[in-house]
Please model this.
Amino acid sequence: MYLQITVYCLYQIVKREINQGDNAMSIETADNKVKPPSQNKATLRWIILGMTALVLVLNYADRAALGVAGPHIIKDLGLSGTQFGLIASAFFFSYSPFCFIGGWLSDKYGPRTVMGIAVAWWSLFTGLTALGSSFVLMFIIRFLFGFGEGPQGAVSTKTMHNWFPQRQMSTAMGLAQGATPLGGAIGTPLVVALIGIADWRWSFVVLGIIGIFIAIAWFAVVRDRPDLHPWATQRDIDLQREKLTQPILSADDKGEPSLGFYCRMPVLLATSVAFFGYGWVLFTFLTWFPVYLSEVRGVDLKGLAFAGSLPWVFGVIGFASGGFVSDILARRTGKPIGARSAVIVIGLVATAIQFAFITYVATTLSAVLLMSGVVFSLYITGAQYFAIIGDIVPSRRLGGVMGYVHAIANLSGIISPVVAGEIIDRTGNWTLVFFTAAGICLLGCILVSFFGRERKIEVYLKRNESKS
Model:
């Protein structure tokens, strides 16, 4: 009942956001007054959001499949905990650099082309996972798989930035990126069902085929910007140009500020560390929670379909609600960066406290519910990392900067599964696994609470001006 009420409330908020976006009104901004757009309806951006969300559902369904099939893969291939952790990490050795490379390419060639090719690539290697017959072969396949999945964070951010006004940016990212836990919620029972029908290999084949069809649909529906889309109205174009604040440019900017100017900003470095902590918790959960439920709590395959998918449902709600709250605070305070930072700090503190105590609850149901709370509070922060960058960085640099921050964050995906595997192999202590993740998560909170304020940004800009 609680879940139904929450979903209904979110539906009403989404409906209000759409209606607000379609009302003709003047918006006062920091530097200008935006004229009301034409009276034609502007709903195309929500279709683009829907396509982006569909791609991200697939993204996490494909990614979550390894963790769900993990107990069967470990048994079938005779892997140790450390070896399985290395297979999970192999993905991130390519994923992390391609977060940046994919974002940079989207600045150069546009998000439509980069995302479409990426979806086709990762779907191909999702299917080829079925051929994994040894540790080495699985490591290579997952490494190649990561090349395709890497661009999704930066490219989806650039797509939303190119289609939505700033006052709806966090909402758009919350709804789009909220599809990632939905992918886990859908992918978990799907993979379990396919394992029950055939074996773990067929689950990857089916997901790979679905991905090829989605890549074709992406190219058919999506364009880089409203002014390039044959279905767009003038209102679609005008709405995207609305701003609450202007992007930050260098004091001596006579044309194009460098990537380094943004990447050195303390607020973005702090955001990167917080995003790293977010990733450490997420990838520990993604890789090891199904194994923990199976080996420690004795959950069977049928129970895993429910226990493994429930936290993802709460993640969807957390991602969407965090985006709404952030945009509401941004509009009311006129300080978008401060609003995003506050949501990050509150969400990560709640995440760390809950994650540290998973092993202390008495029953499996309690552990699953507590993990659902972890994923909910973690994903409340999910849209904020993208939105902060969108508030600061102009569109022509957004893909590269977002890719840089995303790459730093996803280094956690290389380290955390292996660290967890080593802890489990050497000590068998799952409590230590969860406490380690909680501590790293809290470090990001401290940095964002200090640097994620407009005053600190002003200090950086003045220092930069004095050097120029």
Notes: The first helix runs from residue 2 to 22.
